[in-house]
């Protein structure tokens, strides 16, 4: 693998948004790119091979990895991007809904990672880039369950990176802030709505839609993924975009009480 032929990349959730922008950026950088979507995709003319995969299904993930290996012979890079969001009071989601969210955002990452690791260990080389979020390291009122999934991905990724270094494999995190995608249109709604949260939930929905509309282009995140994928000595985490870098800085260096006050103000919550 070299700069003119960096290898084979697999990007989950690549039908639109950050995943599609990432697949294109990797293809332009010389990777042979396989992308996934839950439903069968039409043939593309941009050099990206789209395959069907449901990251919540063990057999589907195994079939995906087997097919990529059969076609390309190796997998050098995996970008775990597939995920869904949920906005509402934590109390408004049933345990079944919370488990379904974790099945995509956390166990989907685990399934794909476990499926590719045997090939990467044989190669003695590989890079796994897990798309997290600034909500993987800060509180997220009315997105508590979504934030919990991203916190889980962060802990898993950091720990796994230490385990895999002896095999020439690195695991890194990319942490976007608000990004101009259809994320807000595809949000899961709580399945046990409570009137006591209706006003705050509606306010948070407005704040999120405005923030997404003013957020970074998905190409900004894709560029950060490319940086994380190709760095000779990768950092543990990469903030994607100006806002993400600012939030990361503030979380580390601003006193807890001041950060708490600012976060409540930004989210329209009473002091």
From TrEMBL:
Family statement drawn from the similarity comment of this UniProt entry: Belongs to the short-chain dehydrogenases/reductases (SDR) family.
Keywords: Oxidoreductase
GO molecular function terms noted in the UniProt entry: oxidoreductase activity
Keyword Oxidoreductase: yes
CDD domains in alphabetical order: 17beta-HSD-like_SDR_c
Pfam families: adh_short (PF00106)
Family matches, as InterPro entries: KR_dom, NAD(P)-bd_dom_sf, SDR_fam, SDR_oxidoreductase
Protein name per UniProt: NAD(P)-dependent dehydrogenase (Short-subunit alcohol dehydrogenase family)
Domain Ketoreductase stretches: 7-180
Keyword flag Oxidoreductase: yes
Gene3D superfamilies with a match to the protein in the record: NAD(P)-binding Rossmann-like Domain
